[in-house]
Amino acid sequence: MCIRDRCEECRGRGKIITDKCKKCNARMVVEEEKVLELDIMKGTPEGHRFVFKGDADEYPGIEPGDVIIEVQLKKHPLFKRKGADLYMERKINLYEALAGFKFQFTHLDGRQVVISTPPGKIVGNGEMMTVEELGMPFFGRNYKYGNLFIEFTVEFPKSLTKNQGKAVREALHTKESDKRCDPSVKEVHVPKMFEGTEKELLAKLRKRSRDMDDDDDDEPNPRGQRIECNSQ
Q1: Structure pTM?
Q2: Is the pLDDT of residue 42 over 90?
């Protein structure tokens, strides 16, 4: 039986180099560093690839490959990007939602931007505000910009004092509020209300249900002790 294998001494070239080059040690290639300059334009999308033709490793008799650099976006603490549009979230209190607000932030290019609501504008919880041309520049068209979308979360106060409640009623009370309930119907006060997010409320209700099931298991059998049948 004959087995063919590559000669490790000549590395399959069919000849042995006795007078070896001191730089490459007969490997016919020398490692060296090469600086590749890359100009990332404004608005470059995630996943975009820059290709440097023929700048990969070289070897005699083999065509060198390409160096490919793929852009990956780093997470920003304030903005989220979708194409040329930017998204941000903003928390405001109930007073700001009803009476208006003004806030300032630093944009990606370092400029300071002030956002304010027009007079009389009421912002609802989860409402989205659009600021035109305050997003990212379009890739390849740096003169045109996307939009900035701001989603608002309204934080309600946990409680109000009597004077605060009176002021709110005087400011927001309408005749329709008095017509919603029949004054002849007996009023039932809610003894306890759950507070928290929907997820927290569901967790509390599940725990309450489990506690009630455990209490039922601990109760004695109302019909007395269970009678077991004797085996004959």
Answers
A1: 0.62
A2: no
